Amino acid sequence: MSKSGPKERILETAARLFYTQGYNNTGINQILEEAKVAKASLYQHFGSKDELGVHYLKAGREEWFGGIRKWTDAKMTPAQKLLACFDHLEYALQQHNFLGCKFINMLSEIGDTSPLMSKEIIEHKGKLRDFMKAFIADALKGKPADEIDVIGDSIYLLYEGAIVESKIYKETWPIKKAKKMIKALLA
Asked: For residue 175, what pLDDT is reported?
């Protein structure tokens, strides 16, 4: 546990617990006990468990894009940058024991019970889709816009599918297969 203040300790603890045991299986009292903070601190900084969930998702988006940009910035061509997104995914899933995507996991738990968290999830997925589609558009310059759009969405869906399948099998073969399909789509 870091030597941070109560707000940071609550968020760090909640993030770990939400990701490893699930949002619905994590109670406020467990978060407070493990973060070693008083209940008043939670409500002072976050207001509710849902608001804490929103902060968790926002922090997760910042962390994810910080990581993926390190991988893509190290590459030269748009195709290499796109494939680096999948390399980062492979690395991240292995580092986190194939627990999957915190956004997909959260959505599967909350359904449509929290519009604020649902909004964060949609924003994250939209940003990721746009991030990847920019590389695809650069890699496919000269092709018709509708073709680039279909290929872009196809590759984004390969990415999302690879996340889920890697979680199911606890292996990286879905990501490796997706990369092979991407090379064919970009050819």
From this structure: 98
